[in-house]
Specification:
By secondary structure, the chain is α/β, with parallel strands linked by helices. It has helices at about 20-30, 50-55, 70-75, 85-90, 110-120, 135-150, 160-170, 230-240, 245-255, 255-260, 270-285; strands at about 10-15, 35-45, 60-65, 80, 95, 100-105, 130-135, 155-160, 175-180, 190-195, 220, 240-245. The protein folds into two domains: about 10-105 and about 255-285, Leucine Dehydrogenase, chain A, domain 1 (Rossmann fold, 3-Layer(aba) Sandwich), CATH 3.40.50.10860; about 110-245, NAD(P)-binding Rossmann-like Domain (Rossmann fold, 3-Layer(aba) Sandwich). It has eleven helices and twelve strands. The strands form two sheets. It has a six-stranded mixed sheet with strand order 2-1-3-5-6-4, with helices on both faces. Strands 9-8-7-10-11-12 form a six-stranded parallel sheet, with helices on both faces. The longest helix has 16 residues, at about 270-285. The protein is globular and about 60 Å long. The protein binds NADP nicotinamide-adenine-dinucleotide phosphate.
């Protein structure tokens, strides 16, 4: 890794931020491409977010990723946002312009679609309805991406029905809200199932869902990537579904930011996946 006095700088802003895999993945790409640069974790409390963002141009940063709990607040804290960030209602990538202005965008939907296309290359939007479990920030990015890709029916199933209704309304006529109690029925004739709730994540309750109504040709994807094989993906794989894990979404969403900050379009490769997984194994073991 090359880090001289004129190294390019970027980082991830979160609170807490220690769990983030972004430093490992961006620093892997920096080393792989022999770029003079470094990407660091920035633990920033919500009360300091705006001040930290305003500081970035003055201390030589090319930009930053923004993660939990700052994604919505960052939308209002940057100088300009693109249409995608506005529709998703959150910023996950900030780019410092040559004029020092902060531009905010959101690459979560891009990461989701690229991961889906890589993991399930035969899936096409015309295959049929998509079911999204959850109506939080990730669900919003996934719903916008699927609607833009041309999926004709998006069923949004959420524990808090009014959040599902609000998200469906924001997406438009292709989306409709479904009560959490109806989640098993929502799978009928679906071609894609995506879990964007926290259920199934390490330390969270399991997702209770009967897959019987889901056609076997449907692709099943999980945004959760700790564990990599969630109980949902294990159950779906056992039924013969093509399954797509959440780590690829994390890796792909990082690509546009890296290219903007460091000037090279990076690739998501098996070696990158392995390097990021290895740091997770080391963290769990220590
Ligand atoms: N792979 C990636 O790159 C990537 C990127 C971003 C996030 N993620 C993962 O996606 C997940 C969601 O993140 P987020 O930022 O979207 O979170 P969020 O905005 O807080 O949304 C959480 C969602 O989980 C639901 N939920 C929470 N507890 C529940 C329970 N006990 N029963 C049913 N539903 C429950 C919430 O429902 P209510 O509305 O009823 O509260 C909401 O829909 C996390 O596991 C995160 O790690 C992955």
């Amino acid at each position: 890794m090359i880090v001289t006095g004129s190294a390019r700088l970027a980082g991830v802003i979160g609170w807490p931020v220690a769990h983030s895999r972004s430093p490992q993945l961006h620093n892997y790409w920096l080393a792989h491409h022999g770029i003079d640069g470094i990407y660091i974790p920035l633990a920033v409390a919500p009360t300091h977010l705006r001040r930290l963002l305003r500081l970035l141009p003055g201390i030589g940063f090319s930009g930053a990723n923004v993660t939990v709990p700052h994604k919505q607040a960052a939308l209002a804290a940057v100088d300009e946002t693109d249409v995608l960030a506005q529709r998703i209602g959150a910023v996950n990538t900030v780019i410092v312009g040559e004029d020092g202005r902060l531009r905010g965008t959101n690459t979560d939907g891009f990461g989701f679609m690229e991961n889906l296309r890589q993991g399930a290359p035969s899936w096409v939007p015309a295959d049929g309805p998509a079911v999204i479990l959850g109506a939080g920030g990730t669900a919003r990015a996934v719903a916008v991406a699927l609607a833009d890709a041309g999926v004709a029916q998006i069923r949004i199933v959420n524990r808090t029905k009014r959040r599902a209704t609000r998200l469906a309304h924001a997406i438009g006529p292709v989306a409709r809200p479904i009560a959490w109690q109806r989640r098993a029925h929502a799978l009928e004739a679906a071609a894609l199932l995506v879990n964007t709730t926290v259920l199934g994540m390490s330390g969270q309750p399991a997702l209770s869902l009967d897959l019987a109504a889901l056609p076997v040709r449907a692709v099943v994807s999980d945004a959760v990537y700790t564990p990599l094989e969630t109980p949902l993906l294990a159950a779906a794989a056992a039924r013969g579904h093509v399954v797509v894990d959440g780590l690829g979404m994390l890796l792909h969403q990082a690509r546009p930011g890296f290219e903007a900050w460091f000037g090279v379009a990076p690739e998501v490769t098996p070696a990158l996946r392995e390097a990021v997984l290895e740091t997770g194994r080391v963290a769990l073991a220590s």
